[in-house]
Amino acid sequence: VALSPSPDGLLRFGDTVMLINTRRTENPECVLSIVADLSDITTHLETNSKPYLRGPCQVGGASSIQPCVRNAFIITSVDETADGEILRYEQNFALRTTPGFGGELYLATDHKSFQKCAKKSRLQEVSLVKQLDFLCWWKLLYINPQERLEHEGFPVQVNTKLLVSHCKTNQCLSALSDHTLWTVFGKESEITAHTFLDSHKAERDCNHWMLMTADPGDEESRR
User: GO CC annotations (predicted)?
Assistant: First the structure.
């Protein structure tokens, strides 16, 4: 899987990106990734097609930052915005897994309930689903709450710390280093939708993400 290059440093609809949770030195970075096993893989029996993931699937925070099907997501419009248009702060969008084996699943969450919540923390569960609806709508928030309002509508730069906020529940995507999951890929951080605030009413680093694209130099070297 190849991430999209960004020659002007701005995020656009249709870009393939990785979501990296930026932590302090005591907790290494982790990447939003698909967590799946054989029960999540299917094929079209009629056409004997190649296998692909079917929803719903779990997600986790993996330590590997090498782009692959597990951690590549496509910035997808929810309001008929064309691919190639610039993504702006507070603008609604969806995150979709890649075609083919990735299954084109959408990142989703909803209010927690007794039956449906994150396994370890019991907070709001995040998963990948087949159907695109309002539960799959997200928006990006400027990192500094004191400057957030004035940045609304501004273009979003790649590789910049920001918040990924869920439109329905108003909870921010978070990676919990103190709640780990053992998966077929190893030990990974639990991913939830929950906003953690510090004493200054600013979001904690577990809510801080970067949407990473390819280095433009890598694209030039492949030509």
Answer: motile cilium
User: Under DSSP, is residue 112 helix (H, G, I), strand (E, B) or coil?
Assistant: coil
Structural domain total, the chain: 1
Q: In this structure, are residues 126 and 190 in contact, taking their beta carbons and an 8 Å threshold?
A: no
The pLDDT tens digits of the residues spanning 78-135 come to 999 999 999 999 999 999 999 988 889 999 999 988 788 888 887 999 999 999 999 9
91 in any annotated domain? yes
The CA R_g of the chain, rounded to the nearest whole Å, is 17
Whether 101 maps to a domain, the answer reads yes
CATH value at residue 121: 2.80.10.50
At 72, phi and psi to the nearest 5?
-100, 130
Extract the tokens encoding 215: 């280095």
CA-based nearest residue to 6, from 216, 222, 167, 161: 216
Burial of 129 per CB tally in 10 Å (0-12, 13-18, 19+): middle
Which residue has 């979001």 as its token pair?
Answer: 203
